[in-house]
Amino acid sequence: MSGIDALAAAPEAGIGGxxxxxxxxxxxxxxxxRRGSEAAFERLYRLHASQAYGLCLRLTGDRTEAEALTQEVxxxxxxxxxxxxxxxxxxxxxxxxxVHLLIDNRRRAARGPRLDADDGAMARASIPPRRVEExxxxxxxxxxxxxxxxxxxxxxxxxxxxHQEIAEQLGVATGTVKAQLHRARRLLRAALAPPGxxxxx
Amino acid sequence: MNHDPxxxxxxxxLDAALDEARxxxxxxxxxxxxxxxxELEALRALLRAAAALPRRVEPPRDLWPEIAARALxxxxxxxxxxxxxxxxxxxxxxxxAPQGPRGLAxxxxxxxxxxxxxxxxxxxxxxxxxxWRQAWRGLWPVFAGTVxxxxxxxSSIFRQQEQEYLMAAPTIxxxxxxxxxxxxxxxxxxxxxxxxxxxxAARLAGESPDPAGTDGAxxxxxxxxxxxxxxxxxxxxxxxxxxxxxxxxxxxLIRLLAAAYRARAALTSRAAETAARS
Amino acid sequence: xxxxxxxxxxxAALLALSLxxxxxxxxxxxxxxxxxxxxxxxxxxxxxxxSVTVTGWDRPEVHVTGLLERMxxxxxxxxxxxxxxxxxxxxxxxxxHRDEDTRLEIRLPRAARVSIATxxxxxxxxxxDGDVNLSTISGGIDxxxxxxxxxxxxxxxxxxFEGEAQGIEIQTVSGDIELRAAAPALQLQTVSGDxxxxxxxxxxxxxQSVSGDIDFGAPFAPSGNYEFTSHSGDVLLVVTxxxxxxxxxxxxxxxxxxxxxxxxxxxxxxxxxxxxGMGRENRFTLGGGSxxxxxxxxxxxxxxxxxx
Lengths: 201, 278, 308
Known about the structure:
The structure holds 3 protein chains of 3 kinds.
Chain A: H1 3-9, H2 25-34, H3 38-60, H4 63-79, H5 90-109, H6 138-143, H7 147-158, H8 163-170, H9 174-192
Helix pairs in contact in A: 2-3, 3-4, 3-5, 3-7, 4-5, 7-9, 8-9
Chain B: H1 3-14, H2 20-32, H3 34-52, H4 64-72, H5 76-81, H6 103-159, H7 163-168, H8 172-179, H9 183-206, H10 216-246, H11 251-277
Chain C: H1 5-22, E1 28-35, E2 41-47, E3 51-57, E4 61-68, E5 72-79, E6 83-90, E7 103-109, E8 113-118, E9 122-126, E10 132-135, E11 141-145, E12 149-154, E13 159-164, E14 167-172, E15 177-182, E16 186-189, E17 195-199, E18 204-209, E19 214-216, E20 225-230, E21 235-240, E22 245-251, E23 256-257, H2 259-264, E24 272-273, E25 280-286, E26 291-297, E27 302-307
């Protein structure tokens, strides 16, 4: 923290405010941002931007959408900072904002297929047929997964959330999350396997 | 275990989601089936690769200017031109944002100003807190009965099945504001009802017994959702109350404060219900 | 069927016994049918996880089918001609690894009154015309049709309804609410869930939120009465061509973005400092102003958007 910030933040300690920000600079920034400090807001953005963008990119599979979603996440963070309880790192909270916004946006855009729709088409691979000589790398393969499968896979196998947490985040049953996760893995296996090997079941 | 069922279970096996008996069955099959072994290994490799993906990806361009524009309102020059002027009123002075001349002297002055502002605010808070405590003590015996009625009324509202009430009645705040010439007394009663209910709810939410002993995770998740939302509501009550005290004649602030109290009553009665249900 | 519940309880006990005997050998299936008067009551209690789907039909019968997870030890059924009540009881202790879910499918007389409470099981219902009362903690609720009265409650599960009812009341803590509905009276309440309302006609609406956003996009009915209250959530109102309503928007510290409406409406005043207390307010009338729309927030924004 720069000298000026540290000086300005010090008086808080007496009030039982963010006295701990020596240990946790983010908590101090969060408090300042809550009080309207735009500088703190920007710092929080700088600290978390690549984490957020990385997640958004994988969740949406599209660079333009990822940029838009990342922006929404931080705008929302600014507006809803008073609902961040401080339990758990800010990054985790931002991640859940991102997932939430993503689901919300879909709903606003169109009443399209719901995340937990039990479409019989599930079994058919939605990844476009590969040309024999092309090998998709993992990132591109994830980007091409159908939405529900992609969300489950990214949140579980990349980000490390558990079924239950994901189910709560997405507002679906744990069974749905598991089904989508398994589907994602099968599709990815099929997409990444060298030609002639495993086929998607 | 036969090949097909084992193959179906490979993913669960990988996720350690099988009970011991099943897991052993799968392992037995794996010992004698190279195809499944390969499949398992391929899945493992996939998961390893997924977990190794870089979590941080630098955005291709700096997104901050657009974020700032949307979150912080248009720059003041543009606001005048936009007519509707939806410029955010400055939040209460950010005493901590460095102001004035830079340099150590300026910083110290800034810090001193910030410090005295905080001391003032703190004194203010303590006074308000003392006033409320006094008021509460005075009102409690008078409103014990009213409180009970209000709590029952509130919780019954939300379980109301008959739609006549819904269609005919104004909101509670309207009712109370209209019928009660002293809204502050009624709101104080809310506060009393809330204070008691809140500690009950916290206790209930904290010790809500595991419904079937199966999902500590689930009742833990429930407690944290309830606690989190109770905190959101309490913050709203604090904000609204502070504003209301500064402007006791504002019907909208009464409405906001009453709405926040209603939300708390609803949450605490829901918490009690779910604890009772298990 | 027997009039006395004693017989049914005995039968239920038999059922329970047979389930216990089946033990851990295989996931338990259920397939039972009970008579129920066309406007009888159906109650399902105690379902923890999984899903239950209810469909109305024209037979005076309740048909329960599906799979029960192994942790369900007992299915207690109390069947009377006017009322069928099912309660699930679970084994205590750790389930170990849950690799199966309970799935119940229930068909019942379409005019029956339905009451279901779950913990995390999803509830789906369609084609039910009676009073519907669904409650969950973290399961989702997904409903369509024309129930008589609708009372839905959730803690964190999300709620989705498409259809009509004679009265709708929905309450969540953090679950989102999505409606595409018509009803003479609508009351929605949440703490931190978001709500989105479309459809109509909805002549009388009360939406309250603490930090969740409210997005209301049904037309404002003539002589309708609309009240939106939020603390820090935003309130977004979609205003269509030909709207005939008086708007009263106020916020303590949020923004008001009433855009073109504020200029075009009669009696419009540009966004400005409000009456004592409220930081911003905007009151204006469109058309004849027969509907009354009032939106108040503490720090959430108030936004009016053009709709079609």
